[in-house]
User: Which sequence fits this backbone?
């Protein structure tokens, strides 16, 4: 295989393994092993991809070898390569967590294939350079997520999944409408080509209206204000591993798409589009903060923190300067990792206590000290306590905001850290330090240890991600540079 | 110099080792390992004192995140040295004290881990030269303080105090960070030394005042200045060694450090003076007045710490005036205030540290810290009493103790204000010494309370389960004794401290006056009959009077605004926030999908509306339209009718059939529009869909007439119509804006190359084969979904596996 | 012609959205189906209607109608069919599980 197809591996390998798993529906152990092998291979490929992009620049491949704007082009710049890699890392650990928590019944009903298909869709959406193909990848990841959210057939799951699906159907509908409009004006689907042509006509008003439509489409997926209503209840319905995957990955696809379109297509009327994006991002943060304080349910608290993070990232994107974008990329990856870790951790807390209601918990530190400290580190990381990973991203974003003269906005960003801290530290104080309310259910210590392994690994990765910021910085800079200067992307795709 | 860097990291490394070493050195013996760390560092640092007093300073840098201008740089100068010595010196004594204070049954290992963590973080704060690194350690001190306050986490009050202190100090830290980032925006550096050299640039920037205020909020929260002081009394839930160490000697002084450190950067503007000195004085008064009413000795000491910190803060404020002055006599007058601040900083650590330890001993031996249940201990615990006496009298500002010296300097500094040629300051100048004086009277009163109400008067019977009162073991007395003797020694040899320790620090605060005569004044025990000594005498006389009459005027604490505490505000705020958040969230999170859809569509309509009206580009172009033939218009008419009819369908079968009509009509339209492949697919899909609908129809109940209210119908109708209009209007506009020919032309020529004559098929099978493959995948996954939906069912009553 | 079809699309969208706003599951699913009809028509219209011959390459035709939207619609039709089918089965299961018509109200903490 020549180097040029490397960027397809993280998409194709999960797909391929998912297909193989079909033959082992009843052999759960085989499924587990194969899933891990598939993900490990994808991880190797994605690391290789990062290295290649770092040394050789953006990788592209046009399927069927047709010249660029006509075939479907897959493009891997540093931003997408980093996202692809992070996605696979999180999936590996969530899958390991699933071994001891999801239950054999679900495993026998296409749990692992569905995850792998979803990864195919997510990585595809991160990598594609064709706007309609992005729609198709979205549908792949959505239908896989539909399968995951209903899997198990619990009453609440079924009820919430209908809402989830309906909202996404609407969003997909608007997606196609927006693509149709864009096609009518620009006459092309290749993203680099779209960027060139929008630049040529200097983004007339109607294009800005289409930009807003795209914002709605991806905003529904990415859960921005005021389109996030569907998220908290739907995400809380499925079991923890699925929630962890959704929380860490799915909204981020929407955030990615907004970032991509708002840095590649709609960059000629920043005064309107990006100002608008920024206001929405700030409102998203505020709404998320209100929600995070409103609940005494573990899942809800962390779920609302997803929304806050989406706001923070998009605020960084809206600055449209290198610092802001660098911060956004850094924070995006941080948030994926830390959300994965936190969901797994609260999953273990729920497993240990048998409830997700904070008011019914207490005294866990005596019996589950490791869990407590791991959680505390993750919580501090989420709140951006230095030198953990949330801190550097936020500092960069704020720096970008200062450069763009958005002082109030940056204060809101930093103030939101406080709400985040309050919301997650509350969990710690209640669940670990508080007086023990109920007798803890008897749990298998081996299962507990098996669950702790992925949690600790994820937290360690986030810590390394924060402390080793310098080592990662060149990659972030590369990613931000492409976002800040669309011509790099365009030249890579449309090179003759 | 790498020593400085080591000084920061050694405690952290030791903190990590404690859990392991604790396995070997079990019980309280682990303390002997821990004590070597601060002791070693203290010796390491104190060896550098002579060279520092010769004007040396030690800078060591290594890159951490150079791409973001974050360097791990440490800088040891005179100012840092004072704090570093306090941290390690008092740290050694506190560890020694704690070895006998903590009971063997407690989680001693955890305690020392936190304590070392704090020690490292605190050293990091005072030794960092990079603002970001400083902030990192700043927040680490908040966190270690959080963990230490909640050391007895099973107590509700401990958890409350821990959360409160962390929230307030972290908030301050975040504001401070914003300030730092503003400074970075102005100067492009996080480096403190560079910032100081760029103070003119900073002062000229419009962000100067905001940055200053934000940095000050950070300092004020950490140093418990009014109105952020409310966390400190609650922090007293921590074990007493922690209170002595963090909450009186070191961590609360981080704010003082920050203000002193930033004086050269900000002091050029008198705003700095006003804010720092006014807040400081107010804090001093508020703290001392509130201390008098406390009955818990530790709470009393907490308010006294608040008050003393306010006093130091106000002195720093006055010291900053030296930057605004030009005459050398004036400069010397104001720099003396800073000198007094630094001097008192050290004095306070000595006497307050010893007092906390005394209270710890009382608590440890008698099981209570309540003044009302203590008394007559002077003869039973003579050593403890002596230490308490020394500490309290020093705090009250009496000779022959070091507090007297700094109190004199304090009055002198307050009086020096009348020399300042500040505009419209006359009345305020008069007020400053008066407030200082009143504050000192109250200070005197609570010092007397500590000594006389605890150690004199009636001996109380021991609390149930407690042994009768007796002197504490000598091991616990060593540390307070050392501090007590320092209180006296400093009084006798104040200038030793002045030359070697305070001098270099003054150079750090006033880099431009370095070496100026009078920058490091001689400290005299006797000044002659001047204003300060009269003020001190006044304090003593009125203080004794008021103390004697205490029970006659104590009622004023129960009336008016003194009753009203900021604590209540904090509690109410926190509760209110949670309640409001809950109400707000539950109002819009109805859980109804219909509302979600309505929100989304309304937002869609609103945005499109704003966008269209905002751009005002209503260019419609119908010239390129294809002609309409009659049969086509009939189909379209049928479709419109049948779609609208679905809304009014009485039975679901009608609706399904009407939907089928729509689907097949679209197939016909596809034929008309030269898309035969589409028409075929549409017919197949439509047939299967209809069959599926009918199948489900078999299982689902007959649809009821929806009991929608009229207003609901109108609302939904409006949303629906508006959505339709929005889609149509944009579509029409878009058609008028068609700017480029489609890329499709390429496919027509290229299809021949690909060997296909049907262009659509070639696109699907070749150019965009990836789409087609994925579309099949979607269908496949949907199939899996349907299969598992039908096959996999939960047993009744079993929900999430985690929640079994 | 384009204008007329665009109007038709508008009507279909309005009907679709109105149905989506109802309580009854079947109506909602019908709403999604109608919405997707509207979108497919829109997509076709956006490429221009009847601008040339059927895109089957022959020697005679001078101009062909835009083939790309047709290809996209084909993909979209299959996808929306998959989703509709899934939704239908799901609503059947919800009904079965709860023993009555799928209720879409209700808080998660009930």
Assistant:
């Amino acid at each position: 295989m020549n180097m040029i197809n490397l960027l397809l591996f993280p998409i194709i390998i999960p797909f391929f393994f998912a297909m193989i798993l079909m033959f082992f529906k009843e052999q759960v152990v085989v499924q587990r092993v194969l899933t891990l092998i598939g993900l490990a291979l994808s991880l190797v490929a994605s690391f290789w991809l990062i290295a290649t992009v770092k040394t050789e620049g953006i990788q592209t491949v046009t399927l069927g070898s047709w010249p660029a704007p006509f075939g479907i082009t897959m493009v891997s710049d540093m931003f997408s390569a980093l996202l692809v890699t992070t996605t696979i890392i999180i999936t590996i650990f969530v899958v390991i967590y699933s071994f001891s928590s999801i239950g054999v019944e679900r495993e026998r009903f296409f749990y692992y294939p569905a995850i792998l298909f979803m990864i195919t869709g997510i990585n595809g959406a991160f990598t594609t350079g064709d706007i309609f193909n992005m729609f198709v990848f979205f549908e792949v990841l959505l239908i896989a997520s539909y399968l995951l959210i209903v899997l198990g057939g619990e009453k609440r799951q079924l009820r919430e999944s209908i809402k989830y699906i309906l909202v996404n159907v609407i969003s997909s509908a608007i997606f196609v409408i927006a693509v149709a409009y864009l096609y009518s004006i620009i006459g092309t689907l290749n993203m680099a080509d779209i960027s060139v042509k929008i630049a040529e006509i200097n983004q007339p008003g109607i294009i800005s209206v289409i930009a807003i439509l795209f914002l709605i489409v991806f905003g529904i997926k990415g859960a921005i204000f005021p389109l996030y209503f569907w998220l908290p209840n739907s995400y809380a319905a499925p079991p923890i591993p699925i929630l962890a995957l959704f929380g860490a990955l799915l909204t981020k696809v929407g955030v990615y798409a907004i970032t991509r379109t708002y840095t590649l297509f709609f960059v000629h009327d920043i005064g309107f589009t990006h100002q608008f994006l920024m206001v929405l991002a700030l409102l998203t943060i505020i709404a998320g903060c209100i929600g995070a304080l409103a609940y005494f349910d573990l899942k809800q608290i962390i779920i609302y923190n997803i929304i806050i993070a989406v706001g923070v990232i998009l605020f960084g994107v809206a600055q449209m300067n290198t610092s802001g974008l660098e911060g956004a990329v850094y924070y995006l990856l941080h948030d994926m990792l830390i959300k994965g870790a936190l969901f797994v951790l609260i999953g273990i807390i729920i497993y240990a206590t048998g409830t997700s209601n904070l008011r019914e918990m207490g005294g866990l530190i005596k019996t589950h000290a490791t869990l407590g400290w791991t959680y505390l580190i993750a919580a501090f990381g989420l709140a951006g306590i230095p030198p953990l990973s949330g801190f550097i991203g936020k500092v960069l974003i704020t720096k970008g905001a200062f450069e763009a003269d958005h002082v109030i906005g940056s204060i809101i960003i930093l103030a939101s850290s406080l709400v985040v801290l309050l919301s997650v530290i509350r969990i710690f104080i209640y669940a670990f330090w508080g007086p023990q309310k109920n007798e803890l259910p008897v749990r298998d210590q081996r299962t507990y240890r098996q669950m702790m392994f992925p949690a600790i690994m994820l937290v360690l990765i986030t810590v390394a991600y924060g402390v080793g910021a310098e080592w990662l910085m060149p990659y972030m800079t590369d990613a931000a540079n492409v976002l800040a200067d669309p011509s790099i992307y365009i030249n890579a795709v449309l090179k003759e | 110099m790498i020593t400085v860097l080591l000084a920061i990291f050694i405690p952290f490394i030791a903190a990590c080792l404690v859990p392991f070493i604790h396995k070997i050195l079990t019980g309280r013996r682990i303390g002997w390992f821990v004590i070597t760390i601060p002791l070693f560092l203290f010796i390491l640092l104190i060896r550098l004192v002579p060279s520092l007093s010769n004007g040396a300073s030690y800078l060591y840098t290594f890159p951490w995140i150079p791409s973001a201008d974050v360097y791990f740089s440490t800088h040891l100068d005179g100012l840092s040295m004072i704090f570093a010595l306090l941290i390690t010196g008092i740290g050694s004594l506190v560890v020694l004290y704690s070895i006998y204070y903590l009971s063997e049954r407690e989680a001693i290992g955890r305690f020392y881990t936190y304590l070392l963590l704090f020690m490292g973080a605190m050293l990091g704060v005072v030794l960092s030269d990079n603002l970001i690194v400083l902030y990192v350690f700043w927040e680490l001190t908040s966190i270690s303080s959080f963990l230490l306050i909640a050391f007895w986490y099973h107590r509700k009050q401990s958890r409350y105090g821990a959360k409160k202190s962390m929230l307030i100090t972290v908030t301050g830290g975040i504001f401070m960070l914003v300030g730092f980032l503003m400074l970075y925006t102005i100067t492009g550096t996080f480096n403190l030394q560079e910032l100081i050299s760029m103070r003119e640039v900073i002062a000229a920037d419009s962000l100067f005042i905001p940055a200053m205020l934000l940095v000050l909020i950070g300092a004020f929260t950490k140093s418990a200045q009014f109105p952020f002081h409310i966390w400190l009394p609650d922090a007293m839930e921590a074990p007493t060694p922690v209170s002595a160490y963090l909450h009186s000697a070191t961590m609360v002084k981080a704010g003082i450090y920050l203000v002193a450190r930033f004086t050269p950067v900000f002091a050029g503007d008198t705003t700095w003076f006003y804010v720092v000195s006014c807040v400081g004085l107010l804090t001093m008064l508020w703290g001392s007045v509130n201390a008098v009413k406390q009955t818990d000795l530790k709470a009393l000491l907490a308010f006294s710490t608040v008050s003393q910190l306010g006093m130091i803060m106000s002195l720093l404020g006055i010291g900053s005036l030296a930057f605004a002055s030009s005459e050398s006599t004036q400069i010397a007058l104001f720099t003396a205030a800073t000198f007094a601040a630094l001097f008192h900083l050290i004095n306070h650590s000595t006497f307050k540290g010893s007092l906390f330890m005394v209270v710890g001993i009382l608590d440890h031996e008698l099981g209570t810290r309540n003044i009302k249940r203590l008394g007559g201990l002077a003869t039973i615990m003579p050593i403890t009493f002596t230490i308490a006496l020394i500490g309290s009298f020093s705090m009250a500002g009496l000779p022959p103790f070091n507090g007297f010296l700094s109190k004199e300097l304090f009055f002198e500094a307050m009086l020096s204000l009348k020399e300042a040629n500040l505009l419209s300051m006359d009345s305020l100048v008069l007020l400053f010494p008066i407030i200082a004086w009143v504050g000192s009277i109250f200070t005197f009163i609570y010092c007397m309370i500590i000594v006389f109400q605890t150690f004199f008067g009636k001996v109380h019977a021991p609390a149930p389960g407690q042994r009768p009162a007796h002197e504490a073991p000598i091991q616990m007395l060593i540390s307070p004794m050392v501090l007590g003797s320092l209180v006296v020694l400093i009084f006798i040899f104040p200038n030793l401290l002045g030359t070697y320790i305070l001098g270099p620090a003054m150079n750090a605060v006033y880099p431009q006056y370095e070496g100026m005569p009078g920058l490091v004044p001689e400290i005299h025990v006797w000044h002659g009959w001047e204003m300060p000594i009269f003020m001190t005498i006044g304090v003593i006389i009125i203080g004794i009077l008021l103390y004697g009459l205490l029970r006659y005027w104590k009622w004023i604490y129960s009336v008016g605004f003194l009753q009203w505490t900021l604590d209540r505000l904090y509690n109410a705020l926190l509760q209110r926030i949670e309640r409001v958040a809950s109400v707000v969230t539950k109002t819009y999170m109805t859980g109804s999908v219909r509302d979600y859809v309505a929100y989304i569509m309304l937002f869609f309509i609103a945005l499109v509306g704003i966008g269209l009206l905002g751009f005002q580009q209503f260019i419609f172009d119908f010239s390129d339209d294809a002609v309409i033939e009659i049969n086509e218009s009939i189909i379209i008419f049928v479709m419109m009718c049948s779609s609208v009819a679905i809304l009014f369908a009485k039975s679901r079968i009608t609706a399904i059939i009407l939907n089928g009509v729509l689907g097949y009509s679209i197939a016909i339209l596809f034929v008309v529009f030269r898309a035969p492949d589409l028409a075929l697919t549409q017919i197949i899909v439509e047939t299967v869909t209809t069959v599926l609908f009918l199948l489900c129809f078999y299982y689902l109940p007959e649809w009821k007439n929806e009991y929608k209210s009229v207003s609901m119908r109108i609302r939904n109708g409006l949303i629906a119509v508006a959505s339709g209009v929005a889609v149509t209007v944009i579509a029409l506009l878009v058609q008028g804006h068609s700017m480029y020919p489609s890329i499709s032309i390429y496919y027509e020529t290229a299809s021949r190359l690909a060997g296909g004559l049907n262009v659509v098929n070639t696109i699907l099978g070749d150019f965009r084969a990836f789409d087609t493959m994925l579309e099949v995948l979607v269908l496949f996954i949907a199939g899996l979904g349907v299969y598992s939906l039908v096959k996999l069912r939960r047993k009744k009553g079993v929900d999430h596996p985690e929640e079994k | 012609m384009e204008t007329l079809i665009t109007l038709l699309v508008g009507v279909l969208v309005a009907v679709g959205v109105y149905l989506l706003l109802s309580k009854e599951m079947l109506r909602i699913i019908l709403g999604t189906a109608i919405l997707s009809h509207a979108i497919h028509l829109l997509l076709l219209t956006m490429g221009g209607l009847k601008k040339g011959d059927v895109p089957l390459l022959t020697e005679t035709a001078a101009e062909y109608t835009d083939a790309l939207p047709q290809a996209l619609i084909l993909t979209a039709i299959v996808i929306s069919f998959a989703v509709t089918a899934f939704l239908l089965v799901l609503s059947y299961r919800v009904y079965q599980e709860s023993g009555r018509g799928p209720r879409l109200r209700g808080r998660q903490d009930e």
Remarks:
- Residues 796-804 of chain B have pLDDT under 50 and may be disordered.
